[in-house]
Amino acid sequence: MPNQALKIVAMGACSRAFGPRVINDIVLDKDLTQARDVEVVLVDMDADRLDLVARLAERCAEFGGSSVRFSATTDGEVALRGAHFVLVSVAVKRLPLWEQDFRIPLSLGIKHCLGENGGPGAIFHALRNFELVIPMCRDIERLCPDAWVLNFTNPEARILTAILTLTRVRAVGLCHGFHDLHDTVQRMLQRPLNELDVRSAGMNHFFALYHLSDRKTGQDLLPELKARIAANPDRLRPLVRYFYDTFGVLGYNSDDHIGEYLAYAHEFTGLGWSLGIEHRKVPAHEQPQPDHFAEYLSGQRQVDESFVRPSGELAVPIITDMALDRTQWRPAVNVLNTQGYIPNLAPDGCIEVPATVDANGVHPEHVGELPEAFAAMIRLQHSIIKLLVEAYRTRSRRALLQALLLDPLIETTAQAHKLIDIMFDLQAEYLPQFDE
């Protein structure tokens, strides 16, 4: 790798959030771009928007004074040849299908929330994205078998488990959810984050704070945090607060995100969809939505330091850690629990833990056991994921039904059977074909 251009492929580059974040982080990473010749290939199926993103990337590189070479293609096979790193953030018809993932279960009496990463809706979200990601990984096996895949595609734990179970690619999952916990802690302690050592572990979007100390002195700050929560409990969301009071677990300060795994979340969140029409007004006159990327290219918005700025995502720092052998600690990666990093979880379950990264890859931290009640909830999710991946591998409706019936939000067998029938009918174009 040191004597050739570092090739990074961004799959799903037209995502409004993912594309610019990757572009800007690479442009701004002087350690990487001054040490290595860097080529970035942007890939997406939307050719028109991809052209906009490619031109915007060049504008960002020019603004940042970066030597990174950007190119774009709709042909994934062409892009992947010789790649060292592949960043994956893909989806199809994300919002309309997500709405179905939420509304259809709700219409059957399934009292869930969000419908994205956990619960019955996430079963179908995962199956759709398996259909996108697994073929992509098959191409990586052929065209760049030594590449590292950095996955952002949700549902993260389900997608990464499928990648690492069904293919031979080297992959790690990334998510910015840990930032929410870090922000909560620093606000409560009223101290800057760079003074704090904050560590969490569990599953993506469903993790627990297990270590909090002063970076300089090593002082344990968990007692102070607990005292501040007791004095100001309203700083935690209602479900998050109940979960903390009951199980002693503080993680994502989002009732929606942790609630996806809890049958009683609706008591705190209600039964609305956070992105639904019930949460926004209907304008008298619909205005066409401007294209976010086109606004920057046309000059309506400026490509300046307010746009070309670090995203806080871990993908590019991890790439640089590997490419330059920096041996850096990173707060959250998703991996399989193969070495018992969390001893009271299964070795084939997908977990989120801190890790050290160097030229030899990602080295997860052994964090010890989670509180038993919390671990039991994650173990159940791991069993659901295992059955779901097996259902996809074998195209077995029986295994799929088993995965649904294990979900704590399913109350009746009729709900599970009807949900499968309805979703396979409505989303037939996007879901894998299953045996009857």
Would you mind describing this structure in some detail?
- By secondary structure, the chain is α/β, with parallel strands linked by helices.
- It is 44% helix and 16% strand.
- The protein has 17 helices and eleven strands.
- The chain has a six-stranded parallel beta sheet, sandwiched between helices.
- Strand 7 and strand 8 form a beta hairpin.
- Helix 6 crosses helix 7.
- It is globular and about 55 Å long.
- The mean pLDDT is 96.
Query: Order of strands across the widest beta sheet?
Result: 3-2-1-4-5-6
Structural class: alpha/beta
Q: Which stretches of 5+ consecutive residues score pLDDT under 50? A: none
Distance between the termini: 48 Å
Average pLDDT, all residues: 96
How much strand content do the residues show?
A: 15-25%
Order of helices and strands: EHHEHEHEHHEHEHEEHHHHHHEEEHHH
Based on the structure, what is the oligomeric state of the protein chains? Answer: single chain
Q: How many alpha or pi helices?
A: 17
Q: Approximately how much helix is present in the residues? A: 40-55%
Write down the overall geometry.
Answer: globular
Largest sheet: 6 strands, parallel
**How many β-strand stretches?**
11
Computed over alpha carbons, the radius of gyration is 22 Å
Features:
single chain; three-stranded antiparallel sheet; six-stranded parallel sheet; 436 residues; 17 helices; alpha/beta
